[in-house]
Amino acid sequence: MDYTLDIGAVTRNLEPLFQGLAVTLQLTVAANIIGITAGFGLALLVLSRFAVLRVPAMLFVEFFRCTPAIVQIVWFFYCVPMLFNVFLGPVTMGILALGMNLTAFNAEAYRAAIQAVPKEHLDAGIALGLSPTQRVLNIVLPQALRASVPVLLTNGIGTFQQSALVAIVGVQDLMYQGKTLATQTYRPIETFTIIALFYLAVSFPVSQIVGYLERRRGLAVR
Amino acid sequence: MNAMSRDTALVRITDLHKGYGPNIRVLRGLNIEMKPGERVVVIGPSGGGKSTLLRVVMGLEEIQGGAITFAGQPYISADGRKTRIDTEVRKKIGMVFQHYTLFPHLSVLQNLTLAPCKVVGEPRAKAEERGRAILARFGLEAKADAYPSQLSGGQKQRVAIARALMLDPQLMLFDEVTSALDPELVAEVEQVILNLAAQGMPMMMVTHDMWFARNVASRVIFCAGGVVVEDGPPEQVLGDPKEERTREFIDRVFHIKG
Amino acid sequence: MSLDFSILLKFADALALGLWMTLKLTVLCVVLGSTLGFLIGLARASENALIRVPASVFVEFFRGTPVLIQLFWIFFCLPLILGVELSNLASATIALTLYMGAITSETFRASLRAVGREQMDACTALGLPRRVQITNVILPQAVLLAVPTLLSNCISLFKESALVSAVGMADLMFIGQNISNNTARPVEVLTAVAFLYFVIAFPLTRLVTRVEGRMLRKLAA
Fold this sequence. Notes:
heterotrimer; A: 222 residues; mainly alpha; 82% helix; elongated; B: 258 residues; alpha/beta; 5-stranded antiparallel beta sheet
C-alpha cells in the first residue's frame, strides 16, 4: 500500500479523544442507570395482569427491540423537539435516547429471568405458607435478579457501543472526535484503529466478566 | 494355543482402579469374572461405583489401573497414564442408559439404522428391514417414523434397547434403565429385558429394583466402597447374605420397599 | 404543529426503493455472514491454537467495537490499504458480513457445546466412528439448536444495516433522512421509516419465540 502509517498524528491529538471518551462514558453510565431501574419497572408492567398496563409496556419494548437504534436516535433528536418544543442539550438528549432503548432491552431481560424461576419454587412457597408478596420478595426476585445480571451487563456494554451512534446527530463523543480527527489529519487508518481499540479496551474486560459469570452460573445449575 | 484363548470367561475384570481427579477413588481393585450366558445384576449403595463399573466396561471411561478381557481377548488396560481400549472389541458390547440418549433429531427407525449403516456398512434397506422386525417384536412398529419427543419414557427406553440390539451385541449393559421412568411404565421395559434374558443374552445391569433383580439375575454382585463385597446366586445374596454389609443394605432396601 | 402524513404518498416509491436496498443487503450478508460464522465457530472449537486463537481475536474484536467504527474502518481505511476503490455496496457488504460472521460464530459455538455429553456416550456405545459422530449426530443437532438464535442474529443484522446510511448508501434509513431533510417533515417521514423497520422485524421476533419453543420440545428427548 502507498500509505505510511503515522501513529504520531493521533498520539499528538489524544486530548480531544479523551474528552470524547469522557462523553461516551457519561452517556453509557447515565443510560445504564436509567435502563437498570426503569427496565425493572417496565418488566413489572409487562408482567401485569391488567391489559391497560401490560399492552402499552409491551408496545414500548417491542418498538425499541424491533427498530434500528440509529432510527430511534435520529427520530428522537429531530422529532422530540418539534413535537414537544423542547431541546435539552445534545448529551442529555443522547442519554435519554440511549436510556430508553436500554430500558426496553433490560425489561425483556428482567421479564425472562422472572419467568424462568421454576414454578415448583412458587409451589414450595405456597406449601410453606408464604404470602404472595413474600413469595415474590423472597423467592422470585432474588433468583431472577441474580439470573439477569449477565444479560444486564451484556446489554450495558451494548449501549456503550451503541452510544457511538450519537456522533451522527452531532454529540461530541469518542466516535465524533475520532471522525473529526481522521478528517483533519487525513489519517483515517491510525485514528479509526485507535478509537476502535479504545472501545475494545472497555468492552473486552466486561465481556470476560460476563463469560465468567455465565460459566459459574452454568456450573451452579448443574 | 496360548493361555488367553483358553480363558472361558466372557468378561474378566482384574484389579480395576478408577477415580475422578486425584482425590476421588471410585473403584479400588475390583475383580469380576463373568461367564458366558450369565446375567449379572450389580447392587449396592449409591456412590459404590456400580454405574462407573458399567461405564468402564462399555469403554466410556479412563481407568487408572487393572485390565479387562472380553471372550479371552485383551480389551481394556491401564498403560501408565493412558487407557488402552480395543475399539473392535467394544463394538461387541451394547449399552442402554438411564436417560434413553436417543438422538432427538432422528426418527425411531433412523436411530436404529444409524450404527449398522455407518459402523458395519450394512445396506440401508437391509438395516431398515431388520430395524422394523425388532420394533415389531417390541410392539413398536407403529412408531418407526415417530421422533423421540413423541414417545413415552417407556417407549423411548424400548427403542434404546432395540437400537443397541441392532449391532448383535454379545453382551448387553443396562445402567439403571428404569430409574427415570414413571412407575406404570417400568413393567414394559423390564418385560423386554426379561425376554432377552430368556433368549440367553448375557447381560450386566445396575438396578435399584430388587424384585426385578431377583427375576432377571443368574448372579448378583454386591459392590460397596469400590470393591466386590459379596457375589453369588440371587437367592443367596438377596435372600441370605453372608456379609454383614450386604445384610444391612438388603434389610434397608427391603424395609423401605415395604 | 400539524402533522400531515399524506406527504408520505409522494415519496412511497423512493422509500420502497430504499427498503428494497436494505432487504437485499441484509439477505446477502446473512448468507455470506452465517457461512463465515459457521467456519469461525468450527475454528474456535479447534484443538490447534494456530487456528483457534486468531478466530477468537477476530470475534472479540468485532463484538467489542461499535459496528459504526467497523463500517467506517472498512469504508475509509480498507481502500487505502488495498489501494483499490471500493464501491459503497462492496464496503457495506464486507463490513456487515464480518459483523454477522462474528455474532453467528458465537451462536454456532454455543450450540455445538449444547449437544450433551450423554449423546457422545451413546455414540461410543454404538461404536460410531468420530466422523459419523460429528456429521450424523452432533452437527445436525447443533444446527437445529442454532436456528432460533440465528434468526435473532438475522434480525440484528437487519437493524444494524441501517448504519450504512452513515456512509452514504441509499438504504431505507438514508432515503428517509434525505426526504426528511428536504421536506422538513421529520416526524412524518422518520416515523414511517421506523414503522417500516418495525413491521418487518416484529413478526420475525415472534417467529423466533415460536421456533425456539418447537426446537426445545423436539430436541428434549
